[in-house]
Each structure stands twice: as C-alpha cells, then as structure tokens.
Amino acid sequence: MSNAAMSSRCQYCDARNPSESHDSSFMTDRNQNNWWQSETMDENPNLHFNESVTLTIDLGTKFYVNYVYLQFKSPRPHAMVIYKKTDDQSPWTPWAYFSSNCLTYFNMTYEAMPTFTRPDEAICREEYSTLQPLYDGEVIFSVINGRPGTDDFFNTPALQEWSTASQIKVELQKMHTFGDEANAERDTLLTYYFAIRKLTVGGRCMCNGHGNDCRPIGGYGPNPKLVCVCNPAHHTAGDNCERCAPGYMDAPWQPATPGNPHACKGDQVAFSALNS
C-alpha cells in the first residue's frame, strides 16, 4: 500500500506512547504541534446522542479573568458552554453560551452587537460555532468587555464578582457532523471527535487590590495552589490578602481601590505595648 493511501486511513493513538498521546496538558504546553483529543464517536457512541465532553481547569486561586481563548484542531462544537466557579463551595455559574443556532439549542436570542443590561449577564454567540473552518477555528470569550462598569472595574462589585473564578469548566455539548454518522461504518465514526490545540486564560490574581502577583506554594506542579504576594505597605494577609495582618487591626479591612489603598492600620494597644 502506498504512503498516500496509508495516510488517508485513521490510525489508533496509544496514550501510553508519548509520540501518540493527546493528553489534556497539551492544550497549555505552547507547542502548536500537540493537541488534546477526546474519544471518537466509534469509541463512545453516546457522542452521537449529544453526550457532553467536559474539561475542567483549576486556576489554583481566585483570578479576575479577562478572557478565555480556545483554538480547535477539530471543527468547533455545534454547541458549547463555559462555566465558572468562584470557590470550591460555590455552584457552577454559566459564563457564556455558544451555538450555531442559539434559539434552537439554548432558547436564547443572538445579537451580533449585544447590549448588556447587567454586568453579570450570560449571552449566546453564534459566530464561533460554524462548521468552517474544519481546523484551527477559534472561540474567544471576553469576560468583561462592553459590560456596565468596564471603565470603573474596581468600583463595580457586580462586575468584579462576575469576572472572579477559581475553576473554569468547558462543556462541549454537540459535535458538528456531515449527517453520515447514523449508519456509518467504523472508519467514518473514527473521524468524529473533539480536539483542542490551545487553551488560554488571561487575567490577574484576585488580591483585593493589595497585591498584583501570585506565587505557588511548594513550587510549580500539575495543580499548584497559588497565593497572592501582598503589598507589605498595606499590612494585609491571607491567600487573597483578604484580611488585616496581626498587629494591624485598628480599622476594618477593606479592598483597595485606585483612589485609596485602604491599608490596614496598626493596633494602638499593640504599639503602645511595644513602646512602653
């Protein structure tokens, strides 16, 4: 058999073989030659009946998220939802819906130029769910752009809450097909799967205005826990600089704003004892 004929046939990928693996870590390794790949419709027939494929991203701490970006190696999904969690105890909140037909699939109206009435309004987009291109298609979710309070983010608590996430879930709900999967032969079913080349989340650590950076506890690993580097001049403490440091509790803790750092104040009793 010629090389051309062999290359046109589907091959099996052995995840135990590094050269054939399509592990989820490949979505974030910055190597464009790698990609994550789901089961095929042959391996999981329920994909034909709209069984979802779910990806969960643990950010390691709370972030103010600006955007979520995906680049697909397969055709983009016919329907997809992005969810977020603020913390481990909070429920999954729908962040964004995507479908080639928002009204049919999600019973939501699509607007090419949406007008937001609330900072925390989840909408449906259609332009990122078309069958074409067959590969390298993008999905871009801008978390805050165009919403009320965008120009005054740190004085808009509802928009801050909307953009805060510690975990993100991408639910691939429906696959694009050519209508040949119902009675297809195995070789055809092997060509239907989800594949993502790149997944990027852009944002900043949620340090309540008392810090700009995060650092991992115990070094970087597969799922590092991150904590804020609190500005020493603000005298705050906690994973997210969410409380006053010991000895600086003379006034209630407050988040910093561009106009006021709201630094914690030293306890007068403690300072008096030190100076006596």
Distinctive features:
single chain, 276 residues, mainly beta, Jelly Rolls, Laminin, 2 domains, 8-stranded mixed β-sheet, two-stranded antiparallel ribbon, disordered N terminus, disordered C terminus, laminin egf-like domain
Q: Care to describe what's here?
A:
- The structure is a single chain.
- With 276 residues, this protein is mainly beta.
- The protein folds into two domains: 10-205, Sandwich (Jelly Rolls), CATH 2.60.120; 213-275, Ribbon (Laminin), CATH 2.10.25.
- The protein contains five helices and twelve strands.
- The chain has helices spanning 3-7, 102-106, 157-163, 186-189, 268-275, and strands spanning 36-37, 53-72, 79-85, 93-99, 124-125, 138-142, 164-174, 195-205, 213-216, 226-229, 236-237, 243-244.
- The strands form three sheets. Strands 1, 2, 3, 4, 5, 6, 7 and 8 form an eight-stranded mixed β-sheet that branches. A two-stranded antiparallel sheet has the order 9-10. A two-stranded antiparallel sheet has the order 11-12.
- Strand 3 (79-85) and strand 4 (93-99) form a beta hairpin.
- The longest helix is centred in the last third of the chain and has 8 residues, at 268-275.
- Mean pLDDT is 85; it is low at 1-8 and 271-276.
